[in-house]
Design brief:
Elements (H helix, E strand, L loop, with lengths): L1 H10 L15 H18 L2 H38 L1
Helix pairs in contact: 2-3
């Protein structure tokens, strides 16, 4: 019985520190998230953590681009409505 308990404790993976995501409503919030994410990855300097952080940063970068496009579309729509009545 003691042998099984010893094996179970050896199989537990160490818990990774988490990066708080919080709301991502605008580009500033996404940029702050990316900074926290990359800072955590740089401190950890583990191969897996850096790769995961890079992937998440790329997704966040795409999110920023889509937010910028949405903002531009809204501004163009407002401009066209004001111009054409």
């Amino acid at each position: 019985m003691h042998h099984k308990a010893a094996n179970m404790t050896q199989k537990k993976a160490p818990q990774k520190a988490r990066v708080r995501v919080g709301p991502l409503r605008n580009t500033q919030e996404v940029t702050k998230y990316m900074a926290r994410l990359l800072k955590k990855a740089a401190k950890g300097a583990g191969g897996g953590e850096v790769n995961d952080a890079y992937k998440l940063a790329m997704i966040a970068s795409m999110l920023i681009k889509s937010m910028e496009v949405s903002l531009l579309e809204a501004r163009i729509d407002t401009f066209e409505r004001e111009r054409h009545g």
